[in-house]
Design goal:
There is one protein chain. This protein is mostly helical. The protein is built from three helices and no strands.
Length: about 100
């Protein structure tokens, strides 16, 4: 845990150094400034109540998809090609 804090401070101090034009001789000030910022962030995080995970959203399409799936399952399967089952279509025959 301390190693993680040290690494975060190091990265923040480096960012401060770059932001200020990479001037030499200010490393201690950058380190202390970074440490103060990290400590303030950690204190803010500790003061916040833990967030509970969000409940999964139900979309409007959910019930529709379920209804379609049920209707599809209730339909009879199509007859195989070449079978004698009627197709529901009728042909008109011309009278001669």
């Amino acid at each position: 845990m301390a190693d993680d804090r040290q690494e975060r401070i190091r990265q923040r101090a480096h960012a401060i150094w770059e932001r200020e034009g990479r001037r030499d001789g200010e490393h201690e000030r950058h380190w202390h400034q970074a440490a103060g910022e990290i400590d303030a962030e950690d204190a803010t995080q500790a003061a916040r109540p833990a967030r509970k995970p969000a409940a999964p959203r139900k979309t409007a399409a959910g019930p529709v998809k379920e209804a379609r799936a049920k209707a599809k399952a209730a339909k009879p399967a199509k007859a195989a090609a070449g079978s004698a089952a009627p197709t529901g279509r009728t042909r008109k025959v011309k009278a001669e």
